[in-house]
Design a protein that fits this description.
The complex is a heterotrimer of chains A (about 300), B (about 375) and C (about 550). Chain A has one domain: 3-Layer(aba) Sandwich (Rossmann fold), CATH 3.40.50. In chain A, about 35% of the residues lie in helices and about 20% in strands. The two termini of chain A are about 15 Å apart. Chain A has twelve helices and ten strands. In chain A, the strands form two sheets. Chain A has a six-stranded mixed beta sheet, with helices on both faces. Chain A has a four-stranded antiparallel beta sheet with strand order 2-1-4-5, covered by helices on one side. In chain A, helix 4 runs parallel beside helix 8. The longest helix of chain B is centred in the C-terminal third of the chain and has 39 residues. Chain B is globular, with a radius of gyration of 27 Å. Chain C has about 550 residues and is mainly α. Chain C folds into four domains: about 180 residues; about 50 residues, no CATH class; about 25 residues, no CATH class; about 260 residues, MetI-like fold, CATH 1.10.3720.10. Helices cover about 65% and strands about 5% of the residues of chain C. Chain C contains 18 helices and ten strands. The longest helix of chain C has about 40 residues. Chain C is globular and about 95 Å long. The chains are: A alpha/beta (about 300), B mainly alpha (about 375), C mainly alpha (about 550). Chains in contact: A-B, A-C, B-C. At the B-C interface, helix 3, helix 4, helix 5, helix 6 and helix 7 of B face strand 4, helix 8, helix 10, helix 11 and helix 12 of C. The complex binds adenosine-5'-triphosphate and magnesium ion. Magnesium ion binds next to helix 2 of chain A.
Chain lengths: ~300, ~375, ~550
Amino acid sequence: MSETEPVTNGTERPAETTAGETDERTREAWREYEFAGETKLAVEDLDVYYGDDHALKRVSMDIPEESVTALVGPSGCGKSTFLRCLNRMNDRIGTARIDGSVELDGQEVYQDGVDLVELRKQVGMVFQAPNPFPKSIRDNITYGPRQHGDIDTGLLARLTGRDDSEAADRLVERALRQAALWDEVEDRLDDNAMGLSGGQQQRLCLARCLAVDPEVILMDEPASALDPIATAKIEDLVEELAEEYTVVVVTHNMQQAARISDQTAVFLTGGELVEYDDTGKIFEDPESQRVEDYVSGKFG
Amino acid sequence: MATTNERDPDGWQARLASRFARMGAVVQDTENDAVAAGVVGAVSLAGAFAGFLVTSPYTSVCIVGFLLSVGYGWVRHQELAAKGVTMAMTVSTVVILSLITVFIFYEAWPILQDRSGQVLGVTVPGLELFTTTAWTPAEGTPRYSMLPMIQGTVLVTIIATAVAGPLGVAAALFISEIAPAPVREVVKPGVEILAGIPSIVYGFIGFTVLSPWASDQFDLVGQGTYLFVGIVVGLMALPTVVSVAEDAINSVPESMKSGSLALGTTDWQAMTTITLPTAFSGVSAAVLLGVGRAIGETMAATVMLRNTPRVAEPLYNVFYGFETLTSLIAANYGSSSGLQKDALFVAGCILFVSVLTLSIGSQLIEERMDHDLGRAE
Amino acid sequence: MAGAAESTVVREDTSTYEAVAGLTVGLAAILFFLGLAATVDIVSVTGTLAGLGTLTALGLLLVVMGLAVVAFGLASYRGIFPTDPRASAGLVAATLFSGLWFLVGALVGSETLGLGFGGGLAVGLLVGAVGFAATALPREDIGSTLPAGALAVLFGLVFLLGVVGPEWSWSPASFPDSQSVTFFARTIAPFAVILSALVVGWAAAKAYGGFGARGRHLGAYLLVYLNAIAIIAVLVALVAFVVVKGFAPVTESVTVGLGVGPATTIALFGFSYEVVWPVNWPFLMNGASLFTDVTGVFPAIVGTAWLVVGAVLLAVPLGVGAAIFLTEYAEQGRFTRVVEVATNALWSTPSIVFGLFGAAFLVPRFTPQPQKSLLAGMITLGFMLLPLVVITSREAMIAVPDEYRDASAALGVSKWQTIRSVVVPAAMPGVVTGVILGVGRIAGETAPLLLTMGGGSFVGAGQRAKVLDSFQLSLSPPFVTNPELTQATTALPYQLYQVVLTGTGETAGVTDITAFGWGTALVLLAVVLLFYAVGIATRQYFRSKLTYE
Ligand SMILES: Nc1ncnc2c1ncn2[C@@H]1O[C@H](COP(=O)(O)OP(=O)(O)OP(=O)(O)O)[C@@H](O)[C@H]1O
Ligand SMILES: [Mg+2]
């Protein structure tokens, strides 16, 4: 754990004694955080443990639909963990134990009978590091719909005249355009996706996710490995996507969070959600001293 | 370890010269007694090898000479001695490995020459061994056809692969992707232990239980079927397939699998559309190695087969098992001499070459997988 | 898209449907085990089952299950239950089903209809094509249930209607008399039952999952789990079988108590002291003899022990040394690559080929007359072990991080010192584990011994290899000789082979040769599995130390 501790300068560290009070005060404050739209995801008292390691502590927050929610916080504070709870990717980690509730459109995600396939179709995810499949660009995009049986271009489909090649082509173009990648790969759709640059791969992964037509898109530091130009492209995209989708994005970059998000949640070391409010409020006038220190770059 | 080949192919003379020059420099730089000890050591090692080849009693003298020079070098110049000794060990290993190849072919040569045949006016050594079907070493004009044994080996290998291939790959998938951790902790060593059961134990069980049972079930004339030998051999090749395929499947990065699952696929879809295709070369290498094991499996076949070389008819009659290449050698070596013994070496050569091909093939395929994944990471 | 038709992540309640489908999977499991029981005659095909003739009962079960599976498909197709079928059951299922149906068609065509080989082929192809179309063309719920259910119903009817009765048999005419085969109902019926159980179980599992991705997932998992269970069951059965069969002969007349065992004389520095073992274990401590009650495998154990010692002494220093040179000194390039490929190839070279090599190269060289010998066996097995030692040592050394070497080099330590104090210790766990597992393998190796070492079907205790006592010094070269090393002897796997080969042990005082064989097999298995258990445990130990440190 020690290596995930933020590097702090002793003198600037907020007094330990006030931290607890602040927490209680702000916890009430953001709990009543009100937003205009409908609630898409409602998280209530979420605890995550990795073995004995308590990675997320009683996190509650409501995420409004068709907006961008930024998650910020120092490394190791549990942002990725939180994100993975929303589409239950944490189920894959054997040591992880999850308590609490996450509701998608009012339906509990952590209950018996939840169809993980359906859940993940609705809550898509773009990972921290680009992870295209070692297939062609086209196959990467059509992968999801093909697995879900929405598109069939297989041998059998062709033989029986159920071939969806045209629909597939349209889908590929639509998804790639949405991810601002179409112009760059238009004439090499059949090349292996591994040959793309890091930034292109990241946008390909976004396109692959969009092709499944999710309602929520989770993005884990989508721009961490990218140069400023590619980053700007992704940022524009995120803002555009918010018109149709609910976007939750993790970022280490405060300016980025301030630029693209409608509301921001600040996690601090130890897995606590310290403050959650309108982005403007978080960056200009946060309730908590620790959040102010963090977003102004004093620590973390 | 990165390999640094891709050198200029034409410059070998220059390279050789520079290598000699370097060697000369090394000799110049080294103290005289060290050079002397090195030379004595090398000469006595070579002498020991030569002495062994001609069965000379002086072999042991040379060995003692080698040990003495190594001992001297170790005390006075440990650094150099260590390098020299490990190099000598490498050379011995390589020599041993090449000797195996040389000797098998050397011993097989007389019969290949004796039974050569003409194809389009060209003399092909050993042709007759593959154009007749009779193995009759005891008759007036002895015949040594390899075909009955090749049929046996092919049938056994096909059946064994049909058992070990699909079941092995499924078990590898199970161990690396499906099994919960506690189950994996049991199944994985279990499969390894399966590899440990000696083939003669399989053979003994097959001989005492399976063969009589099969004869009774199918009302066969006598005992011994390729079918059950194939199944037993497949069981024996299974662990090889499982462990190599599991390595390959394990090397598929987790991020790819998560990428698929996050799109809303089931675990099985992720396995069949991402994991297996990505690990395809590794998995096929595993199956190839399993095939190699099946071809070379000896004792189970020797004990369970009839040991009377004959062609099973019709050619796919797996209910009668006569002889495989391996069991031919094991069952006949003790009582054979002359050309018949050489014929056994021909069988050995066939085995050696086919398994060698499979092994090298699977290594090349595996290398390709490393390469593919190297791009992916 | 948000705001579009409200979709749900919770599956609809389909408990009735799932319960019935689950029940069918369970029934298929029962059927599967009934089939297994029938193959080993626990359930007699000619007897009765639940008051009916076994075949009738099995046929009834098959028909019921087949119909049930078809009913699931139809129910899903008519939308009676909410399922999520794909447009087609897919190419893989279609290919497998068409293969099954091809076989059925070909057999019926050539034998039942008597159309001969060509006719059978034609009927088979036709039926196979229909099977393919029936799987691939309709929607998944029909495509994966109809052909499966039909197969079970067909087999079931064949048994129910007595087309294949308990006394049915069939010998293909195309097989020559000397190589004739007869298929009896008692063999074919269990096989057909197992096959149908697998197919029907798979289809029911798919139905249970509501077809689609989830159905395929469940269907496949059913088969994969079954496969894993079967492998472990075979393993356990094999070992248990040998233990059960071999326990009695191995433990015959074992006595424990002070002074009951054989005496061993220990001679040291002129003193000689006699130790009497507190246990007498005849099977392990006796040789073959007409004068003892129990004939044992002591000489074979001694032989195996010497073989292992000799092979390890040869292969480990050579292999580890070569690995050090290849990893630490040699330029990584074409040479090391070729050596690597060659060693890998040799590791998969059949053991009998090593035996041939030993016979040609080693056997003629230790004595004036070519003679199989312990030494030749040791060296041959050593050569077999060598590639494994090189491979595992190299892997272990490559895995040692370069930082260790750099750190050591930065302290001004010489290369060899670095290797000795850093690389070799760090690689030790890997090397040790590899060697132990390799030894387990060669200890059970038989084929090379037939050609290089084995002699004597049953060896008396007095003729065991007394290597330590037999070194002789002389003044003429080669100065040291040891007749025990250059003589043929026996070993555990070789002994077991001899049991099979001779088929009788009357001359050696063995009354029940099969029991003696099982005893030998048990001892051999115990020795080899001991090596494996120790090897695997060592690896686990080192691994846990590495991960939790
Ligand atoms: N698979 C896992 N097993 C055990 N512990 C884990 C696992 N994943 C995360 N953790 C622990 O949970 C805590 C939160 O990790 P998480 O990855 O969520 O942090 P993060 O905020 O995303 O950090 P970063 O900004 O560096 O990505 C960390 O202490 C980490 O060590
Ligand atoms: Mg993270």
